[in-house]
Amino acid sequence: MIYYPLRTLVSAGLEDIMIVTGGNNAGDFLRLLSNGREFGLKDISYTYQEGEGGIADALRLAENFADNDKVVVMLGDNIIEDDISDAVREFEKQDIGARIFLKEVSDP
Question: Whole-model pTM?
């Protein structure tokens, strides 16, 4: 499931990412993705989330990585079919705020 969001982010021009994961298989991401260069990344970082902290805790764990810069949060199980490049570029121009991708589905 990691390949799809990774490809979406790289296609949008992101080169530095952090994988926030937890559970018993967290080490699998490091073995699978290594340094990320094979996927077009300049840098890939990993951090481990203890327990069920959710997105807010994942953002806290990524705070030093983000270094007061803008961030994209993408969940591995959310499928975005469209290219997000334009939205990422527009988000980079924003002084403040956020962008959320939403799609209505017939059978959630």
Answer: 0.84
